[in-house]
């Protein structure tokens, strides 16, 4: 698989229901996937616990 691209999944407030991530993996996607959340998401620490370094946090301000 090529390593010069990735998938970004924008999400908010549902760390236990990132269905797109599961769907991509089940479909055979083996590339990088990043979970993108904002700094005001109260559940961002749960995303980090579940997905680790795959989580990117951006500032809404």
Automatic annotation (TrEMBL):
Checking Pfam families in the record gives: TAGT
Q: Which domain of life is it from?
A: Bacteria
User: Which parts of the sequence belong to the TET-Associated Glycosyltransferase domain?
Assistant: 8-60
Query: What is the protein name for this chain?
Result: TET-Associated Glycosyltransferase domain-containing protein
